[in-house]
C-alpha cells in the first residue's frame, strides 16, 4: 500500500461522515477507536453534523494509524466496503432515489463535493465496458488508502443499490500489490491490476442500465433540493465558480459555453480551469449543468415562453436534447415540471 507521508499529503477537506465510517468499521471489528485516536477527537467526530468537514490530511492519517496498529494494509478497502448509506448523508438519499446505476454515476459526479474535496468520478466507455475512473484533484499523488476506500465503497454501493450481490468488477490500482490480495478478490470479484496509471473499476456497460431497487421519484426532488442547498453552503460560491457561472449564463443563448471558450473568457487555460474546479470538487460539465438547470427553472415558471424557445435560450439546437437533459437533472420532463410549478402547460 502507498501511504502518504505528512509532508506529501494534500490540502482539502472531507466530510466528517467518512471519518465516522472508519470509526464504525473499527468498532464492528471490536476495536475501540479511542485506542488509536485521542478520545476527545473521537467524541467530536461522532457528534459532528453530517455537513461538517475535517482536513483531508487528518482522515488519511487516521487510516495510516489504523493500518499500522492492526497490521492490515487492506484495512481501508474493507472499511470502504463496509460503508453504510448513513455515511453519505444527503448524497446517499439522492443516490437511493435514482432510477438506474447510470443515473447514480451522474448524480455522484454532480454532488461529490458533499463528501469533500476528494476527486471527481468519471465514466468512460470502451466498447461494451465501462471504466469508472477516480480523478484525484490535488497536485501530490493520492494515498493508496484513499483509493482503496473509494473503490471499495463504490463496488459495495453499486451492488446494494441494484440489489445485485453478484456484480463483479475488474479493479485497477495505482500502487503495488499488497502481500495478501484476498480482500481485494472478495470485494471486487474480477481481475486485479496493480501498479497502474490510475485507480479505477471496469465492468460491463449493461450494469449502467440496472434499476435501483430503492428508486423513488417523489422523494428525489426533495432530497435533490436539500443536496443543492448544502452544495451552495459548502462551496460558498468560490470566486472562480461565481465568475464561471457568470460567463456561462451570459453565453447560453449563443451557444458559446465550451470549456475552451469559458477558459478564454476567464483568461486562463483549459487545463488550469479544470484543475482549479477539481480542487473545489467540481467539473466543468457539472457547473454548466447547474447554470442551465437554474436558467431552465426560471424560464419554465413563465408560461409565455415555449419549450422550444427555452431549449434555444439554453444553447440547445433541438428541444429533445433539452428534454433529455432536464429529465436527467430533475427526474421530470420540462412540461410536467412546469405544470407542477404553475398549473399550466
Automatic annotation (TrEMBL):
<dbReference type="InterPro" id="IPR009057">
    <property type="entry name" value="Homeodomain-like_sf"/>
</dbReference>
<keyword id="KW-0804">Transcription</keyword>
<protein>
    <submittedName>
        <fullName>AraC family transcriptional regulator</fullName>
    </submittedName>
</protein>
<dbReference type="InterPro" id="IPR032687">
    <property type="entry name" value="AraC-type_N"/>
</dbReference>
<dbReference type="Pfam" id="PF12833">
    <property type="entry name" value="HTH_18"/>
</dbReference>
<dbReference type="GO" id="GO:0000976">
    <property type="term" value="F:transcription cis-regulatory region binding"/>
</dbReference>
<dbReference type="InterPro" id="IPR018062">
    <property type="entry name" value="HTH_AraC-typ_CS"/>
</dbReference>
<keyword id="KW-0238">DNA-binding</keyword>
<keyword id="KW-0805">Transcription regulation</keyword>
<dbReference type="Pfam" id="PF12625">
    <property type="entry name" value="Arabinose_bd"/>
</dbReference>
<dbReference type="GO" id="GO:0005829">
    <property type="term" value="C:cytosol"/>
</dbReference>
<feature type="domain" description="HTH araC/xylS-type">
    <location>
        <begin position="242"/>
        <end position="340"/>
    </location>
</feature>
<dbReference type="InterPro" id="IPR018060">
    <property type="entry name" value="HTH_AraC"/>
</dbReference>
<dbReference type="GO" id="GO:0003700">
    <property type="term" value="F:DNA-binding transcription factor activity"/>
</dbReference>
Amino acid at each position: 500500500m502507498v501511504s502518504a507521508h505528512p509532508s506529501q499529503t494534500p490540502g482539502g477537506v472531507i466530510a466528517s461522515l467518512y471519518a465516522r465510517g472508519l470509526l464504525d468499521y473499527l468498532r464492528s471489528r471490536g476495536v475501540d477507536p479511542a485506542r488509536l485516536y485521542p478520545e476527545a477527537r473521537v467524541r467530536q467526530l461522532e457528534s459532528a453534523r453530517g455537513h461538517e468537514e475535517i482536513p483531508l490530511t487528518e482522515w488519511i492519517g487516521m487510516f495510516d494509524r489504523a493500518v499500522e496498529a492492526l497490521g492490515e494494509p487492506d484495512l481501508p478497502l474493507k472499511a470502504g466496503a463496509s460503508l453504510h448509506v448513513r455515511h453519505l448523508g444527503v448524497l446517499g438519499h439522492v443516490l437511493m432515489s435514482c432510477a438506474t446505476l447510470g443515473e447514480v454515476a451522474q448524480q455522484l459526479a454532480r454532488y461529490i463535493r458533499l463528501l469533500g474535496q476528494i476527486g471527481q468520478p468519471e465514466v468512460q466507455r470502451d466498447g461494451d465496458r465501462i471504466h469508472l475512473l477516480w480523478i484525484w484533484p490535488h497536485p501530490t499523488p493520492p494515498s493508496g488508502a484513499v483509493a482503496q476506500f473509494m473503490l471499495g465503497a463504490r463496488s459495495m454501493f453499486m451492488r446494494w443499490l441494484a440489489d445485485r450481490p453478484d456484480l463483479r468488477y475488474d479493479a485497477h490500482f495505482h500502487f503495488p500489490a499488497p502481500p495478501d490480495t484476498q480482500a481485494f478478490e472478495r470485494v471486487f470479484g474480477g481481475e486485479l491490476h496493480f501498479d497502474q496509471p490510475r485507480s479505477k473499476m471496469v465492468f460491463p456497460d449493461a450494469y449502467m442500465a440496472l434499476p435501483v431497487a430503492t428508486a423513488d421519484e417523489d422523494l428525489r426532488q426533495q432530497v435533490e433540493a436539500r443536496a443543492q442547498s448544502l452544495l451552495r453552503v459548502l462551496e460558498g460560491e468560490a470566486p472562480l465558480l461565481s465568475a464561471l457561472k457568470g460567463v456561462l449564463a451570459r453565453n447560453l443563448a449563443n451557444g458559446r459555453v465550451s470549456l475552451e471558450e469559458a477558459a478564454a473568457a476567464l483568461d486562463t487555460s483549459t487545463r488550469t480551469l479544470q484543475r482549479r474546479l477539481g480542487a473545489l470538487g467540481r467539473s466543468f460539465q457539472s457547473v454548466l449543468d447547474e447554470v442551465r438547470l437554474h436558467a431552465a427553472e426560471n424560464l419554465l415558471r413563465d408560461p409565455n415562453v415555449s419549450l422550444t424557445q427555452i431549449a434555444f435560450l439554453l444553447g440547445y439546437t433541438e428541444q429533445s436534447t433539452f428534454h433529455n437533459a432536464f429529465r436527467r437533472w430533475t427526474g421530470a420532463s420540462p412540461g410536467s415540471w412546469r405544470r407542477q410549478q404553475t398549473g399550466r402547460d
